[in-house]
Write a structure and sequence with these properties.
It is built from six helices and no strands. With 109 residues, the protein is mainly alpha-helical. The structure holds ligand 8HZ. The site of the ligand Cc1ccc(Nc2c(-c3ccc(O)cc3)nc3c(C)cccn23)cc1 has 11 residues, from helix 5.
Length: 109
């Protein structure tokens, strides 16, 4: 029962972070970063553990998270990677901070 609630809680958060209502600033985080198509060949020099909201949703539905802390770590990894590659003051960096703020509010519930 508790496990199902935790699963529901996490899936609702991923759904919300990925939802259309935040489309103006969540799109860089919905799918894996593709350094080739985005012409950022140095991406993997900055980011050793790529992560995105789509991958998190898939991991959730495949029950790949043993604890909600593992889920939280993956969500925070999305933002960590964003800030590692997109310096302060860049648009994508600011988009990361906006989405992180929504996550922090939901996570603190
Ligand atoms: C030349 C250049 C410079 C910056 C970017 N950043 C960026 C990222 C990004 C997201 C997460 C992440 O960990 C790293 C990068 N996603 C985008 C998108 C969707 C459109 C435009 C820029 N974007 C892309 C190309």
């Amino acid at each position: 029962k508790k496990l199902q609630n935790a699963f529901k809680f996490c899936s609702n958060i991923v759904k919300e972070l990925s939802s259309k209502k935040y489309a103006s600033f969540n799109y860089p985080f919905l799918e894996p970063v593709d350094p080739v198509s985005m012409n950022i060949p140095t991406y993997f020099d900055y980011v050793k553990d790529p992560m995105d909201l789509g991958t998190i949703a898939t991991k959730l539905s495949n029950w790949e998270y043993q604890t909600i802390e593992q889920f939280e770590t993956d969500v925070r990894l999305v933002f960590k990677n964003c800030y590692a590659f997109n310096p302060d003051g860049t648009i994508v960096n600011m988009m990361g901070h906006r989405l992180e703020e929504i996550f922090n509010n939901r996570w603190a519930d």
